[in-house]
Structure formats: C-alpha cells, structure tokens
Amino acid sequence: MSRMNILFVDMDEEYIIHLVMKFVEVLGDAVDIEIITDMDYMNQYLEKPHEIKILVISENLYDMRFERMAIRDYFLLIEQNRSEESYLAKRIFIYKYSSIGQIYTKIASMTGLDKLNTGDSHKGKLIMLYSPIGGCGKTYLSTETARALAALNKRVLYINVESVQDFGYYVQDQSYAGKEFELAMIQQSESLIEKFRNVVREDDFDYLPPFEQSTIALNITFHSYKKLLEKVRQLEIYDYILVELSSEFLLDNVVYMGMADQVLIITNQDALSVYKLERFLTNIDYTKKDKFKIICNAYQKGKENYLVNHWREKKYDVLEYIPKEEDAGDWSKTRNVYMDSGLQKIAYYLI
After folding, report:
1. What is the pTM of this model?
2. Are β-strands 206-207 and 318-323 bridged in parallel, bridged antiparallel, or unpaired?
3. Phi and psi dihedrals of 63, rounded to 5?
4. N or C terminus: which one in the chain shows less Cβ crowding within 10 Å?
5. What are phi and psi of 211, to 5 degrees?
6. Angstrom distance (rounded) from CA 82 to CA 105
7. CA 278 – CA 180 distance, rounded (Å)
C-alpha cells in the first residue's frame, strides 16, 4: 500500500492533539500527518493545490475549496450525535466526542490504515458467541454483530454450530447447505475446503448456510467443525470468524471457548437469566476478563436490572446493553439494527 497522508483540521488545538497522538501511537511514521488549527493558515493552505489521502475536519470548518484537492476520504467531525450513519459524496460523519479510540478505529478500518502496521493480525480471529439462557436473542445479536463488523469493512464469516440451525430467518437467502457439503463434513474429506468455498453464501457478511436436518441426525460432530475452522483460518481470507454456540453447557462448547480469541456471553437482565449466568461463570475460568465479555440483550430501562442489583453479592461488568427491539421478530423491520450505537461499540471492541 502506498504511503498515506492525513490532514487534521480543527481550531481546538488541545482536542486535535489528543486525536492525532492516537494515530501516531498506533501508526508511528507509517503515515504523514499535517495539522491545521489556525484559520489564517487554513486560508493560505487552500490557495494552493494539495493531494490529500484522508481529511479529518470539523464539520463547521469544511470549505468548498477542499473540493479542488485530490482527497480520497473525507471524515467530518460533528458536535451533535446522530442516530444514523450519514454518507454524502464520500463524506462520512463521526461524532466528535466519541472516544478517541472509537474515532481512530472507524477511520482506520474504513481507509485501510489498520493494515499498515498490523501485519494482518486480525486474519481469522475467532469470536465465540454463547448464552446459558435460551431465548435471549443470541442468534439475532450474533448476526447483527457480524453486520456491524462488516460495515467497518471487515471480512466476516458467520458459522452456527447448534444442532438445529434456524438462523436462516435473519439472512436473505434461506436455502440450505446441501448434500455435497453435508457429506464432506461427515467424512471430514480432503475436499472439505473446496466444498466450503462452493457453498458459502454472502449477505452483508459471509455465512455457512444451515443444515436442513439436525447435526445430530447427520452425525456432523464437533471434530468436523473444528477441522473446518482450522482450514478456513489457514485460508486467511477472513478478518473475523463468528461462531454461534448452542446454549447447553457441553464439553464441546468449553473446547470452542478455549480455541476462541474472544467470547461474548449474551444474557438478559431478569433474575432467572442472571442466576443461570452465575451458574455458568462458576464453571469456567472467568478470571480472563479480557477474553470473556458480557452483553445484555433486549435491555429495558424500566425494568429491574439484576446484573447490577444492589442486594446481589456479585455485580457484573457488562460490555454493552443492547435495547429491546419491539420488532426483533420481524427481520424486515430490523434490517439496519446493526447501525445501533451499542452494536457498533461491540464491533469497535472486537477490532
């Protein structure tokens, strides 16, 4: 990739220095950085032609004279947070008072800056999604997390390893994997990865289609999936592989979690859900809190939150609370839910 240059424009010198320091900290001298914090200098700068790969500028300072520059990517820093992403002629709006880390991650992931010094360290990163509670919205949240990562220009593969796979409701193509791939999985054949390439589907993210029959009936085992995951990672074509696990506390799931780079534990806020969460956490090594993160799904502000209930002996650090979607069962009405700030925060965290 050719050397990139970035121009930052903001009259708040203290703010822009903090933002620039994040880019310097991560990228070092892999990019050329310019800063404008003075209006007179900006006017002089705009009198001459410049080639700028990335422009990061406060929205109220944007000048039409920038249109004459050879600018590849525009990021406008806005002071009023907007619930939806706004795209206009390649201008991408970012809430100025998001965390510095979130701003860096968004710009880097959408421009390729994250590839400069990472050595593709995210290739094949395994994310396991598990819940000890049935019916908490695990599949819904798993597929939307995949969309949120894909929206950050990440190559994402979603695989469901439950016995009965019903995630097809949340993707446009609801067809099944087919007999050829079933046989390759059962036999763990040498042609497995070739069959995988032929069968994988594309939505906003890539996914392995569901099996029509249960994996128990087909005799597709943990070892079949383990071999597939190993081979897919070797391909180095995906940044993230999201694997949705069943809700049973099985040895297979424990091994999956051991393989994972990150485990997202999905729960609800009610007393029964928190009780089941506690029972699960007592049976795993939860000391690795950087690896295991709790997400509360279908959160309702008006209801008691037993995850932080004052009389409970334990309180839990929750990465994010995802609000309850009244139309969560209607896929057509929740098509863009991945743009919710909570899901974006999960995606930023995984990156």
Report:
1. 0.71
2. unpaired
3. -120, 135
4. N
5. -85, 145
6. 18
7. 42
Distance separating alpha carbons of residues 238 and 19, to the nearest angstrom = 29
For 281, the 3-state DSSP assignment is helix
Residue whose pair of structure tokens reads 């016995």 in the numeric block? 163
Per-residue pLDDT reduced to its tens digit, 297-344: 999 999 999 999 867 777 788 999 999 876 655 555 445 555 667 888
Greatest alpha-carbon pair distance for the chain in Å reads 73
Q: Are 320 and 296 in contact (CB under 8 A)?
A: yes
Cα 317 from Cα 240, distance rounded (Å) = 24
| pLDDT score, position 84 | 44
Length of the chain: 351
Distances in Å between the Cα of 47 and the Cα atoms of 50, 52, 70, 116, 230 are 9, 14, 14, 31, 55
User: With contact defined as beta carbons under 8 Å apart, do 322 and 148 qualify?
Assistant: no
Each as own residue / partner, the long-range contacts of residues 111-115 (CB below 8 Å, 24 or more positions apart, any chain) are 111/4, 111/53, 111/54, 111/72, 111/73, 112/1, 112/4, 113/4, 113/23, 113/27, 113/31, 113/54, 114/351, 115/1
End-to-end Cα spacing for the chain: 21
Other beta carbons less than 10 A from residue 86's beta carbon: 11
Residue 129 pairs in a beta bridge with: 244, 264
Reported as a single tens digit per residue, the pLDDT across 28-69 is 778 888 899 999 999 999 998 888 999 999 999 999 898 888
Say what the pLDDT of residue 114 is: 79
